[in-house]
Amino acid sequence: MAVIDLTNFTFRYPFSEETAVAVSSLEISAGECIVLCGKSGSGKTTFTRLVNGLVPEVYEGKWKGSFQTDTLKLGQSKIEDYASIVGSVFQNPNTQFFHLDSTKEIAFPCENAGMDPDEIYTKIDTVSANLELQDLLNRNLFKLSGGERQKVALGAAAIHEPKVVVLDEPTSNLDAAAIAMVAHTIRQLKAKGMTVIVAEHRLEYLNGIADRYCYFEAGELKTVYSQESFLALNNDQLHQKGLRSTDLASYKENVQKLIGSFDFSTDSLLAGEELAIGYKKQAVLKEIPSFSIDEPMIIGIMGANGAGKTTFIKSLAGLLKFKQGKVYWKGKSQTAKQMLKRCFLVMQDVHYQLFSESVKNEILLGAQNPERYDEVIDLLDLRKLEDRHPVSLSGGQQQRVMIAAAICSGKDILIFDEPTSGLDYTNMENVTKLMKRLKAMGKIIFVITHDQELAAKSCDKIMNF
Predict the structure, then answer these.
(1) Which residues pair with residue 68 across a beta bridge?
(2) pTM for the full predicted model
(3) Spatial separation of the C-alpha atoms in residues 128 and 221, rounded to whole Å
(4) Rounded to an integer, what distance in angstroms lies between the CA atom of residue 335 and that of residue 340?
(5) Rounded CA gap, 314 and 279, in Å?
(6) Which range among 86-90, 266-270, 419-423 shows the weakest confidence by mean pLDDT?
(7) Could you tell me the maximum CA-CA distance found in the chain, to the nearest angstrom?
(8) What is the 3-state secondary structure (H, E, C) of 284-332?
């Protein structure tokens, strides 16, 4: 018997006439690792919501046909029935945490199911050993790195030994070491006989792990590839489908060539002198080598999770004060308030920046260059979404909305924190084109990224943290 079984199935959300998911036939067996791939908004996340029962109780909609997860049939089973069958890890694990303590978070699904405390302790020991979580127990979740939090979320999803584990963009904000950690964990889940469903844009780390790849286009399951047939596709063939590369060797080589030191002069366009970052009650987190930028350019900021990249750009944008040092603009020392007026920051968690009731209003909110609106929404493929509420969009679509707002803002320095998390290859290419166009307009762009493809294609120099 298949663990997941679909027959002549279609689903759409109540706010849209477009089909969100359409599958004529699909069977997924126990122990398989299935990758859901396709452009942003192609139906991958909706498919995971169907697997774990979030549709239709949390996300309403209309459907035809049959969708079955283990013995549970869509529309006939309650969401709580799915809890013992499916474990889920969302793109941003912070949105699913219930505790500050990592051990309590891992134990929560068992407590929620009313298990005996002794049995819960046994299960914590077991899942910690299986997924190598021992060093992460009894820790404050918000003092862990992004990769470590993702691993705790995986532990919570797997503690009750579900038949299926669903991962939605699990590596979108992770560095190379954390991605390798996720890959290792997926192998361990498979070894335990669990079915793993991964909705993902980054594909390289799944080489040799995934059994099949389900390629979605505009909601429809177009092709199911075996591991061999998918990995036989070269990067150009993948890019034509809007998919990321499975071979990153050349990109990684180019990134290494872009890492280097900066000259320093306070008379430059932008300069930072003996800067150090940190928070009010914290000692200096990191000292930043003095740098100057003489002309519009794209500067990549790369390095491990927790190295201080986001703290640096928040300080540069005037949201935090540097612990020491000075920032100069055209030879003049700048206060945090002056830099706040000069910079536009697109945050990693873009939903914190969404205020308007439509995509169009969001992009034009505070825009100094509203005349660029039509050009930008077409380039970022947002035309069909301009009347939608931003909160109703996928994570990748929300990211593109804020990038459009940044371009229309007219500010001198644009800062993007992981702008391609949740983006497919086509939209990653569009972000690259936009950043280069902004550079041609005289803008300085800083981009925090773990994305080797983006950095290799777009950056002029890279600061390595």
Answers:
(1) 5, 73
(2) 0.86
(3) 36
(4) 9
(5) 11
(6) 419-423
(7) 71
(8) CCEEECCEEECCCCEEEEECCCCCCHHHHHHHHCCCCCCCEEEEEECCE
